[in-house]
Structure formats: C-alpha cells, structure tokens
Design a protein that fits this description.
With 82 residues, the chain is mainly alpha-helical. Helix content is 70%, strand content 0%. The radius of gyration is 17 Å and the shape is elongated.
Amino acid sequence: MNQTVYNVLLGVALFVSILFIVMIYVTGKGDAMSSGGGGIRTSFKGKASIEDQIAKVTYIMGAVFMTLLIALDFIGNRIFTR
C-alpha cells in the first residue's frame, strides 16, 4: 500500500514539475516568477492582470510541489528503511 501511495505522489510531483517548465516557456519573460510576493495589482476595471494570475498559480503550484516532496520524503523513509 505504501509503495503505491509513494508511486502516485511521485507521478503527481513529476506532473507539477513539468507544469512549472511549461509555465516558464509560456510566459517567456520569466518575470511572472519574480513578483516579490507583493499585493495583487489590478487594472483600472478592477480585474487582475494575466501576470498576477500566473503569479498566483505559481505560488499555489510551488506550495503543492513542496508539500508533495515532503510527503515523498516521509513515505520514502518509511518504505525504504525497512
């Protein structure tokens, strides 16, 4: 059971890392990744720009990726140290 969970989490982590790579190529500039964590800017109509939406998605994906890797480390240590 633990090996299956480990493999599924590893596949999801691989998928998220590929999404990161795709986002870098799609944005092209790379400045969507370096917004500095400030508040979300809005246009004069009150809608967030595409850069703000990309930054928000990047933060969420980063948190998911770090959580997945911590879970993989925990589960991997329990499986492979026996």
